[in-house]
Amino acid sequence: MRRFFIIGLLATAFAAVSTTARGQATDPWVGTWKTNVAKSTYSPGPAPKTPATVTIASAPNGIKTTIDGADAQGKPTHTESVSTFDGKDTPVDGAPALNTTTALKRIDGRTFEAQGKVGGKPTVTTRVVVSADGKTMTATQNRAGHQGPSHQERYRSRKAVARIRRGT
Description:
The protein is mainly beta.
């Protein structure tokens, strides 16, 4: 009887781990994305001079996000965060403001929402949606702050991954 209990427990644990791994592998936002500045809107402007590259990788129960780009003056920017979809604040390394955090919430299989905060106060809400074909990502961002409200829609295309062919 004890043997069947242990086998059943191991089978359940294996099923839970495989389901979690499979769910993370199928998240449509995982990949490298390039912002289409011409198609995106920035209100108020100006738009960045250099399109940002966003790389999203699977992490335990969430994602690791790396954003490389430039601000409106052309100064290079680089941020990184590792967040889970539990709504809890996690730090954003490289953010221009100290004490910047983000909290993620999964909406559905192609959508998540990120709540950005500075010093514990909400400053920006971003809703990220990946198209049904998985080729485009739209990030709709609403910001409140000392410079007044802003609204941005950033369109991104999935970057192709170079494949290496090996000779035989």
